Structure formats: C-alpha cells, structure tokens
Amino acid sequence: MWDSGQTSMTALAIGARSSDIPYAGTALSLNGSTYYWRIRFTDNRGTVGVWSSTANFTMNTAPSAPTSLLTEGVSNPTRVTDVTPEFSAIYNDPNGSDTATKYDIDVNTNSSFTGTMVWSASDIPMSAVSNGARTEDISYAGTTLTLNGTTYYWRIRFTDNYGTKGAWSSTANFRMNTPPNVPESLQTDGQINPTGITDTTPIFSALHTDPDTDNATHYQIQVNTNSSFTGT
C-alpha cells in the first residue's frame, strides 16, 4: 500500500518522538480493512537502523443502509393528513459500537429523485442512535405539503460518530390525503331549489363523495340572504 523509501526528515534527538508523518500511498477506503506497518530510521551518519515491531490500524466502516423506514409510524402510508409528517428509520453499522449522530434526508415527487425535491437536508445533528435502534421522529421541514393526494418518495442515510457517512436507504413513500369532493345534489326539504317552502325549519341534505373513499364525519353549512354569502 505504501513504501516511502528512505525519506528525509527533521533531525530527531535520541528518545524523542518524530513529527506526524502523513500517509501517502495507495488510497485507503472506509471498508473495515486492517493494515500493518513498521518504520526504521537512518542516522546522521547514513547508517540504516533495524525495523520496528509491527503495528496495525483498522479503517472505520461506513454505516449500512438504514432499514424499516416509517412515515407517521407506518410503512408507506396513504391518506396522510399531517402536512409536517414524521419520519424514522433503524440505524445499522458493521462497527457495532458506533452511533449515528447526523442524518441526510431527501423527499421528492419521483421515486428516482429526479422530480421536484420538496425537502433535502444534509448533516443534521440528532440524538445519538445505537446500532440496531430506531431514531426519534424526524419532522418534515421542507416545502409546504398540501392535502392533494400527491405521493412523495423519501430516503435517509446516517453519519456515524467518527464522521463517516453511510449508504442511502431504499426508497419509502407516503401519499397525502385528498379532501372530499364538492358535495352534490343539494336538497331542501327533499327538493332541489324549491319555492313556496312553508317549513320555518327546513331540512337539508347532500351527496358525499371522496377520492380516497373516506367517510364524512362532520359538516359545515351556511345559509345567507345573498348568493355570494356577503349578505346576512
């Protein structure tokens, strides 16, 4: 991986530690590999010393892809009514003692993340998450969402306590709820736009439809002296 050859250095007294010598060999990667190294010195008379004993170091391994992505506590939910939904995922790391300290998250209108990016956040600090544990809820903080039936796609990745950024998760999704359609077939006392009403407490009804096939649970009704609802 690296053989520096005989390289000059600042004179070093007996019993003193050398200055830091930066690695300058074949590029290393964060893949958990263990490397072994040794060193020897040449004195000011040109005499080459003996090799040291062998030391070693092991590279950190990047966090694995997060798993079990949840939106509002559910996997790939539909009919989400919270316009600032919460996200969470499980942190995984081959180095069992490492913790997640930051996250990156993308929310997009396209599953390939080539559509409209409604939220993209990087290196956001978070409470430390142990290997195999679920994060706390992460609240959406992007472009305002609306209840319009749109499906959004999201992914997340974590950075460990050594600053090593991990792999992206697989893609999860959620669909916003859609409001009920405009009520139809409005009737007063069982008739459409009747005249000659004699009941001073007439009754009203209308047909409910919903793109999500949801039930109607509440109503709001207004009765006014003006068709633009600017009268009494």
Structure description:
It is a single chain. With 232 residues, the protein is mainly beta. It contains no helices and eleven strands. The chain has a four-stranded antiparallel β-sheet with strand order 6-5-8-9, with no helix packed on it. Strands 3-4-7 form a three-stranded antiparallel β-sheet, with no helix packed on it.
Radius of gyration: 33 Å
Beta-strand portion reads 25-35%
What class do helices, strands and sheet pairing give? mainly beta
Task: State the major sheet.
Answer: 4 strands, antiparallel
Percent helix: under 10%
N-to-C SSE string, H for helix and E for strand:
EEEEEEEEEEE
**Spatial order of the strands forming the largest sheet:** 6-5-8-9
**If you average the pLDDT, what whole number results?**
96
Uncertain stretches:
none
What is the approximate shape? rod-shaped
Distance between the termini: 86 Å
Number of strands: 11
Count of helical segments? 0
Tags for this model:
232 residues, 3-stranded antiparallel beta sheet, mainly beta, 4-stranded antiparallel beta sheet, rod-shaped
Task: Give a nutshell description of this structure.
Helix content is 0%, strand content 29%. By secondary structure, the chain is mostly beta strands.
Question: Topology of this protein?
Answer:
Blueprint: E1 34-37, E2 55-58, E3 67-71, E4 86-90, E5 99-108, E6 117-130, E7 138-139, E8 151-160, E9 172-175, E10 184-188, E11 204-207
Antiparallel strand pairs: 1-2, 3-4, 4-7, 5-6, 5-8, 8-9, 10-11
